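Q: Hand in one record:
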Amino acid sequence: MEYQVEQVAGNTPITILKLIGELDASCYLEVIEKVQNLYNAGHKNLILDLSEMPFMASSGLVSLHSVALIMRGETPPNPEQGWQALRSMSDDVSSADTVANNCKLLSPQPRVAKTLKMTGFDNLFTQFDDRQAAISSFA
């Protein structure tokens, strides 16, 4: 997995984190750490650009859920605790008021978009196919 970080200046500073490659067990913890470091450094509005991420394994769902929690200012469950992390994901997905308003997804590839829809993760994140629309949604 490769990462590109871009800052978008404006009234509301926005960070775009582009994930390049497959999000699976080999890198899902790196993604969580990367977002936690960005959040701790003051980056409070995030767009995850998934336009070059062709595949996401179940561990990628754990990663995205943790990202949503981090960007809401919450502490994600330890992914190494297995069932607790899965239970937390299930609770958030089934709750209508847990949309990550300060973390949005840009251009998920068809296979990833299908996984998000099948698992209910499309309810956790607002998704955009247009970069400028994603940026403008923070205004």
Observations:
- The chain has a mean pLDDT of 89.
- Residues 2-136 form a domain with the Transcription Regulator spoIIAA fold (CATH 3.30.750.24).
- DSSP finds five helices and five strands in the chain.
